[in-house]
Each structure stands twice: as C-alpha cells, then as structure tokens.
Amino acid sequence: MRPTSSFGTRIPDDILFTPHGPNLNNEHEIQLIRTIYPNISIGNFAPHDIKRTAILTTLNKDVNYMNNLSRDKSLLL
After folding, report:
1. Which of 9, 23, 34, 77 would be a feasible disulfide site paired with 28, CB 3.0-4.6 Å?
2. 16, 10, 14: which is closest to 56 by C-alpha?
3. Domain residues of the chain, as ranges?
4. Cβ–Cβ contacts within 10 Å for residue 24, how many?
5. How many other CB atoms sit within 10 Å of the CB of residue 68?
6. Cβ proximity of 68 and 33 under 8 Å
7. In this structure, how many other beta carbons lie within 10 angstroms of the beta carbon of residue 37?
8. pLDDT tens, 12-42?
9. Of 60, 1, 11, 36, which Cα lies nearest the Cα of 28?
C-alpha cells in the first residue's frame, strides 16, 4: 500500500490500473479498456457490467479519446 499524500485522499490499490510495457500505439489505453471491459472485442455486454464499471478521466478530450479507442474494434482484438 502506498502512503497517503498530505494533498488529498489515497486511491486504493485495487481500483488503480498499472499498465505494462512501453506505451506504443496507445497500448496503455488499450490495456485499460481491455481490463475494465474484457468482452469488448466481441460486444458481449450485460447491462449490469456497464452499470458497475467506468473509466474516469478529468478532461472531456480524454473521455472522447477513450470512447473513440473503445469503438475501434481493430485495436481491441
């Protein structure tokens, strides 16, 4: 467990994502999408899966970027 920062609340390790390897061709973002939505490449989503998971970002441009990546099936295979 990482120490708590004096500047804010510590995020628990079990909800943090740590990517592996170099970030070539959006690999870290794709790893994140595959981790949160493991069945995304086959489009097999149950409504409760969508309700209980989310990828949170602080900027709208990042939201749009992740949404666009998640729709690109060729990247997620």
Report:
1. 23
2. 16
3. 25-76
4. 7
5. 10
6. no
7. 17
8. 888 888 888 888 888 898 888 888 888 777 7
9. 36
